[in-house]
Amino acid sequence: MTTEFPQIIPAGVMTQEFRTPDTVRRGIIAGVVGNMLEWYDFALFGFFASQIGAHFFPATNPTASLLAAYGTFAAGFLMRPIGGALFGWIGDKYGRKQALLWSVLAMALPSFCIGLLPSESSVGIIAPVLLLIFRLLQGLAVGGEYMASSIFLVEGAIPGKRGFMGAWSPFGCFAGTLLGSAAGLIVNSVLSPAAVMDYGWRIPFLLGLAVALGGIVIRRNFVEKVPHQPPAKSPLGEAFRIHWRTILHLILLVCGLSVGFYTTFVYSATWLKQFAGISAKSGFEINTIAMALSLGAVLAAGAWSDRIGRRPVLIVISGLLMVVAYPMMSLMMSGRWIAVFIGQVVLSLLVSAAAGVLSATMAELAPWRVRCTVLSISYNFGVALLGGTTPLVAAWLVSRTGFSLAPAVYLALSGALSFIGALALPKVMPHRLTTEFQAARGGQVARHLA
After folding, report:
1. What pLDDT does residue 317 have?
2. pLDDT at residue 271 above 60?
3. How much is the pTM?
4. I need a surface site. Which of 118, 168, 295, 414 has the fewest CB within 10 A?
């Protein structure tokens, strides 16, 4: 198996000899800014699920209202494989930059509309219907953004730095979710609970539009240099016909990350409030601090994988997640601030470290011709099937079994699936270090630790 890595550089910079620290920084900003915005918008729905449920799915039973809100949250993820296929096709057919530009716009507008949407008490059934439509559009957009930005960064990296550069994509994801958590903390700190319920939850949704416009401007200034080969005539058909085993393998790898991310950073705030007696404000404080600490772990894990290989790092991380998920969530159940903090930080560091390694790992398993399509379908199917449904499944498991630690068991099982996927990675993976100049010389094949 050989995989090709083109160069993605700022407009006007025509050779890799001009790869200065400034151009590298600009490339990182272009890859991260839209990703950060999209995950800020996408995560807000989970953070304010109880308020959204009360406004759009009013019910005499608060649990039923919350389940309806989480169902709408999960519905956005059902669109992610479609968005991955659509934007993956755009990225493989017309270039990575086009996929990145359109995905930012497709996320910002529905989020802004959610912030303005009247409640069910004002306009009736049309309110939850429109909310569901906007959420589906968000899912379509975020399905194309994450892997497109990961590929953008990995393909633009110099050999030996792909793990570190790829880690900037989940860094943007975590930073965006952190920004959403911080927005929730600020709103809950400045406004009374009644004001948050009334109108305060809308404010963070409305503010994302400005960031989106800035992201579009930054990304427009980048161009791609691609390998000297034609793109696939049918990226989707070629992906499923030839690379279906790779798709299944990648889905296994993202299981632990998907469930871990949405358990730790989205569902935990509601879970802690219900079963550990933690206030919404304290939950947002702990969540925000844990996510801030996780940002360093994302980049450190990516850099670590450049030194010792992707496979051993992922084996360690997924194995630890499988083992410590239950004891850490048991610790959090005590309700003591320090216990909740320790448990959340440990889980956050493991999830963020896994994310930091996966971008380069996934990119190195797929060829350039269909890389966007294969990675987008794999990642988004895994996240839609497991990650996006995590709050809904966790709430249902607790309601069905009466066991408040059922989400911890679910998280441990997802870690076990990723552990199996990590063990199945090749110890050494061949890939071609292709630049415009190397291609002209016939290319050269290097060996790189997987």
Report:
1. 96
2. yes
3. 0.74
4. 118
Using the predicted structure, report yes or no on whether residue 226 has a pLDDT greater than 70. Answer: no
For the stretch 185-223, what's the b/e string if a residue is b when 16 or more beta carbons lie within 10 angstroms of its beta carbon? Answer: bebbeebeeeebeeebbbebbebbeebbeebbebbeebe
> Exposure of 113 by Cβ count < 10 A (0-12 exposed, 13-18 middle, 19+ buried)?
middle
Number of domains comprising the chain: 1
**For 300-324, what is each residue's pLDDT tens digit?**
999 999 999 999 999 999 999 999 9
Q: Is the pLDDT of residue 328 over 50?
A: yes
Report the pLDDT value the prediction gives residue 432, as an integer from 0 to 100.
39
| Amino acid at position 16, single letter | Q
Domain-embedded: residue 328:
yes
Domain assignment present for residue 400? The answer is yes
DSSP string, 302-347: HHHHHHH-HHHHHHHHHHHHHHHHHHHHHHHTT--HHHHHHHHHHH
Q: Hey, what amino acid is at 367?
A: P
- The helix/strand/coil state of 416 is helix
Burial grade of 19 (CB within 10 A; 0-12, 13-18, 19 or more)? middle
408 inside domain: yes
d(CA 414, CA 202): 33
In angstroms, the Cα distances linking 52 to 121, 132, 443 are: 12, 12, 54
Domain that holds residue 116: 7-449
Cα 387 to Cα 431: distance, rounded to the nearest angstrom: 30
Distance CA 8, CA 155 (A): 7
Closest CA to 51 of 179, 267, 200: 200
Confidence of residue 343 (pLDDT cuts 50, 70, 90): very high
What is the pLDDT at residue 446? 36
Q: Are 443 and 432 in contact (CB under 8 A)?
A: yes
Q: How many CB atoms lie within 10 A of CB 312?
A: 17
Does a structural domain hold residue 1?
A: no
Structure tokens at 14: 């025509």
* Distance between start and end Cα atoms, the chain: 13
User: Residue 428's domain is classified under what CATH number?
Assistant: 1.20.1250.20
